[in-house]
User: What shape does this take?
Amino acid sequence: MPKLDIEDGLAPGIGPSDEQVHAYFRRYLPDLYFVNTPLSRMRRHLNLLGNLSHRPVQIDFFRPPGAQFTELVLCAYDDILPGLLSKVAGTLAALKIEVHTAWIHTLADPFAPETDARVVLDTLIVSEPYFRRTRAITPKTQKHITATLSEVLKGEIDVPTLLGRTQRRVNAPLVIHDLSATRVGPHTLIKLNAADDDGVLYRVTRGLAHLKLNVAHAQINTFEKNVDDVFFVSNEKGEPLSDAEIENLLPSLRVALGNDSILHEYDRRAN
Assistant: This one.
């Protein structure tokens, strides 16, 4: 487990208290994390972070008792270039895994905060198709997701190739109802409301990667055939966007999400 500066004085074998777990994440994550993350999930996140130096890509599944969905948590070192979230979303789209809600966070490496290394801590609420309905992810599907996502994140296969193998077509232009951008502290907040469709999260995140935007934090919501997403983004160096970049952001993003040939060119250059 990553060292907790505040855990001095704990008796041997006793884990950190609720207050210590909460205080630890306060060092790295914004209010958005605490609004959506119960303490039980924080403790699971802390365990994953503690194993990160031994297992650079960790994929964990948790099904609340009786739930018709599964929590998928990814804890891994971030890519140098923007696009890791796009890889995750594309992999799930290829495997026909539906993302209902997601909370996406990128934080400084707890083991080396003096470096530029970043860690992703993503929680996705997912289900799989089952006779025209959906159900929680079965153990067999969990193994398949873990193996495939690990291959993608390690660069052993790219998402366009994976989509081709699974014959998944997720390239239709996105039907956008509302799109806005505003500066919020060191980030630019992008709000998107659009029609739900196969692979919509992949299309959106691929568009953000095409524009060389890092997703620092995000919340994904799908309901009543619509997606209502927010993304806190920065430039590819993790720095705030300039006024000129913000001004050009929405027109460029609309073009990217509405013109599949642009994203195909991004795929070709990225892979």
